[in-house]
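Hi everyone,

Forwarding the result from last night's run.
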Amino acid sequence: MAGHNFLFVPGPSNVPNRVLRAMAVPMEDHRSVKFPQLTREILAGLKRIFKTETASPILFPSSGTGCWEAALTNCLNPGDRVLASRFGQFSHLWCDMGQRLGFDMNILEVEWGEGTPTERYRAALEADTEHHIKAVLVCQNETATGVTSDIAAIRQVLNDTGHPALLFVDSVSALGSIDFRMDEWGVDVCVAGSQKGLMLPAGLGVTCVSQKAQEAAKNSRHPRCYFDYQDMIKSNGTGYFPYTPSIPMLYGLKESLTMIEEEGLENVFARHRYLAEGVRAAVQQGWKLSLCAKSPHWYSDSVSAIVVPEGFNAAQVIERAFRRYNLALGTGLSKVAGKVFRIGHLGDLNELMLMAAIAGAEMSMLDCGIPVTPGSGVAAASEYWRTHQAPAALGGMA
C-alpha cells in the first residue's frame, strides 16, 4: 500500500525521527567508566518530568504493567488491604493484578465514563479508623474510556482524614502529556511507560518512588527479585543497572527528554490540551456524537473514546479504517468493546497529523453507514484550531 500507516492508537505513539536516529547506535559496554554519565542524565531528566526533588525514578526493562507489579510487591506485605476503583480496562487490570498477587482488594465499582470517585475514597478512608488500608490506587488517565482523574483531590482526602496509606498512581497515558506533580501531590509511586507521552517504543517501564515508599520497601516481606526497588536504586546510585539495560532505548529516552525540555514541559501540556480540544470539536460539534467520558471535567487530553450510535459496531469502523485507509484507531475494550473507537492524541503530533485521523475516521464511519455529515469533523476541528491561539511549539507566537 502506498504511503505510510497513520498511527492514532493511544499508545504506542509515533516515535519522532530524532528519537529513532538517537537509537541507531552501536552497542557499548554497560559497565564502562563512561556509562554512568548517560544514566545520570536520564534520571535527572526524569525527575523534572515527574516534578520531584526527592523521589527516585527507576527504569525497568518492561511495560508499565511491570511497574504496577513492582509497586505492589515492593511496598506491601502479603494480604495487605488496598483501596482502588474500577472504571475502565486498565484500572480493572491493576485491580485484577492485586487480587492475583494475594492482596485484599477493596474495589469501588464506578460507571465506565466517570473517573476516580473522590468522595467514595473519602468515605472508605474515614471508615478505616484502624488503618488497615495500606495503599490507595488511582488511575490518572484511563486509556480505555478517555477519562482523566484528579490526583490532587485524592491526596487532599488522605490529608484530610490523616490516613497514612501510600498513594500509587498509574500515569501511563498521562506522563509527559498531562500535568503530573509527584511532590506537590504527595504521590508515593507513579507508574508509567515509554511508549506514550515519552515518544519511545514500548519496552521501558518508567516509575518513580518516594522516600516513604522506599522505606516501606525495606520492610516489605512480599517476594520479589527482578522488580526489586532496592536493587535498582543501589545500582543506579553508581550510574549502572543491576542487569543489562537496553542501550538503544536509553539513548532514545535521553533524546525524547531533550525534546520535551526544548519545547518546555508546560508548553507540552498546553499543546495536548489545544489539540485535544480540536478533536473534541470534531466529535461533538462536527459529527454530533458523544464521548465515552460523561462530563467535561473527565475529558482526557491524550485520548478520546468516541461512542458510535446505537445499532452500529465500532469494531467495523476500526477495521475499515485500517484496511481501506491505513489508519490505526484504538479499539474498544471489555465493557465498551464495539461501542467506542479511540483516537490517541498524545506525543509527537500537530494539527495536520490529527486532521488525518479525523478525516480517516469520518470516511470509515460513512463507509459503515454511520450518518455523519461528510467533512463535518474536519471542518469543526479546523474552525477550532484556526480561531484559538496555538501553543508556542505549534507556531502560536508567530
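The CA atoms of residues 232 and 242 lie 6 Å apart.

Cheers,
N.
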